[in-house]
Design brief:
Number of strands: 13
Order of helices and strands: HHEHEHEHEHEEEEEHHHHEEEHHHEH
CATH topology of the largest domain: Aspartate Aminotransferase, domain 2
Strand content: 5-15%
Length: 384
């Protein structure tokens, strides 16, 4: 379908940036200290307080956080991961030296199915990785019960659900939390991530591993008598976040609840005005506080490819998250190596074939929301 050049443009997402970020970044640039430094420390404290944990460690990505969670906890066996996620979740398990084992998802929330998790547990299972999809927390009561019964770790991939809550407790506070600050997320630093934990020993190990295995940062060593002395206690990495990005994070964490409230308001408008005849609309699961990092629908009785093309032709930046699912990605499409069976992941494959992501970001205007609704109605008719 040819693009309608006169159509309003509504991007899939847009970061919510104002003068607060600009002022703090300018402060860092003028200070002369651009690497990991005082803004990182301030950002980590504020983020830990926000999530409700003892420690937060700033990193260069959520993938690094996931990797260090697996390595820092000494996991070398199996980690149960939903296949309905971005490949980074499984990649981090592999690169840290463990094995991902794929479980199925729940159709309504797109999150990992606790019953499927139970079926995938073996004597080699060392951790469960709940991936909170699109702003919706997983069913953490059931997953924590499974973990406690088996004495295994919980590593939360909460890249998409900053500020999400289950039973009033924020995601990232149940196990080891791993967050993303990519521009599409609920808050951003451009690139970046965070690991949260109440385990002070793990926090110390992760802090060293992220910085070439050194137990103290360059900024901290500047306050000592011999700041040039460096000692690596681990064979570590360079997974650090610089002070410039941490400054952006400091501005963003101050308005995260406001930005999430706007997302929820926009989602309610879409819920009310979109027809469910050919689309299954998102749901807010019991005991959950959804933060709508994405607004996803599932196409039914229509051609999804035609539906997406019709939306894009009208200037609506629709996309798909995620197709193919991880177990059908070329690297992971080895059922013997990664221990999956096609019949065990039927819901995941159904989701991958039907999911559609519509525009969602705090700054959506009423005019843009109405354009999305009208475009969806027209696109559904064309895709029948």
């Amino acid at each position: 379908m040819a693009e309608n050049k006169g159509a309003m443009k509504v991007p899939l997402c847009k970061a919510y940036i104002d003068s607060k970020e600009t002022d703090l970044v300018r402060e860092v640039l003028e200070s002369g200290w651009l690497a990991h430094g005082p803004k990182n420390e301030a950002f980590e404290r504020k983020f830990a307080d926000y999530i409700g944990v003892k420690k937060a460690i700033s990193l260069n990505s959520c993938t690094s956080a996931l990797h260090l969670a697996v390595e820092g906890l000494g996991i070398t066996g199996e980690v149960i991961v939903p296949s309905f996620t971005f490949s980074a979740s499984a990649n981090a398990v592999v690169t840290a030296g463990a094995k991902p084992v794929f479980c199925d998802a729940l159709y309504d929330t797109c999150n990992m199915d606790p019953e499927s998790v139970r079926k995938k547990i073996t004597d080699k299972t060392q951790a469960i990785m709940p991936v909170h999809f699109a702003g919706q927390p997983c069913r953490m009561d059931e997953l924590m019960e499974i973990a406690e019964e088996r004495g295994i770790f919980v590593i939360e991939d909460t890249a998409e659900t900053i500020g999400g809550m289950f039973n009033g407790r924020k995601t990232g506070a149940f196990g080891t939390g791993c967050f993303s600050f990519y521009p599409t997320k609920n808050m951003t630093t451009g690139e970046g991530g965070m690991l949260t934990t109440d385990d002070l020993e793990l926090a110390a190990k992760v802090s060293a591993l992220k910085a070439h295995g050194m137990s103290s940062s360059t900024f901290a060593r500047e306050k000592t008598e011999k700041p040039w002395l460096r000692a690596s206690v681990f064979a570590g990495y360079n997974f650090r976040m610089c002070d410039i990005l941490a400054a952006v994070g400091l501005a963003q964490i101050e308005k995260i609840d406001m930005m999430n409230d706007l997302r929820r308001r926009h989602a309610k408008f879409l819920d009310k005005n979109l027809s469910s005849e050919h689309l299954d609309l998102p749901v807010e699961d019991k005991n959950c506080h959804h933060t709508y990092q994405m607004y996803t629908v599932k196409a039914k009785g229509i051609d999804r490819t035609k539906f997406l093309a019709a939306l894009r032709a009208r200037g609506v930046g629709a996309s798909v998250h995620f197709d193919p699912p991880v177990h059908l990605q070329p690297y992971y499409n080895d059922c013997k190596r990664f221990g999956w069976k096609k019949e065990e992941l039927k819901v995941t494959e159904k989701l991958a074939e039907s999911i559609v992501t519509l525009p969602m970001y705090p700054g959506l205007t009423q005019e843009e929301l109405e354009h999305v609704v009208k475009s969806v109605e027209e696109a559904v008719r064309e895709a029948r």
